[in-house]
Amino acid sequence: MFSRIADPGEDYTDYVATRWYRAPELLVGDTQYGTPVDVWAIGCVFAELLRGAALWPGKSDVDQLYLIRRTLGDLTPRHMHVFRTNEFFRGITLPTPDTLDPLENKIPTDDRLVLDFLQRCLDKDPLRRWSCEQLLHHPYFDELLFDAALITEEPILSSRRNSREKSRTKLGPGLPHLAHNGRSPTAGIHQVSSVAVLPTI
What we know:
This protein has a domain at 19-143: Transferase(Phosphotransferase) domain 1 (Transferase(Phosphotransferase), domain 1, Orthogonal Bundle). The chain has helices spanning 24-27, 36-51, 61-72, 77-85, 103-106, 112-121, 132-136, 153-169. The protein is built from 8 helices and no strands. Helix 2 (36-51) runs antiparallel to helix 6.
């Protein structure tokens, strides 16, 4: 998603991901990050689906850090050190929130499993943040009517083939069949989406 595997000791670029979904380690400019940044983004998107609005719509990286601190409290000592020594933030002081607005107040649900799932995704410390594998075993998913063990690839592919065959027979003898060339029928159409609700970066 946002991260990749690095060789031991290799530094990453510190600017990846759209601001609203960036983990604290990215916002402060830490170049030693990994897959936990993807889990943070999952948490932000999940919260946005629940709220109908972005969880932390920061107007700048510093504002984004302020909003995160206002909800989750102080950053880790490492992240504060990286922020203070980052040339990009020279002369800038990270504002301290006067009051806290905890996650429970920002998510419209009384479901403790939902809140716990979010907290596992949005742990400030990437070393404590849950992995995707851990999240898949979170009790939140126990209530979903889904059994992965019952699903195999072959029946799904057979079902799709049967569906395509039925669609072709409905065309009738007088209609030509389009040759399949591996491209989508809309491959040449440019999709335009609004970016009015996205932050400037």
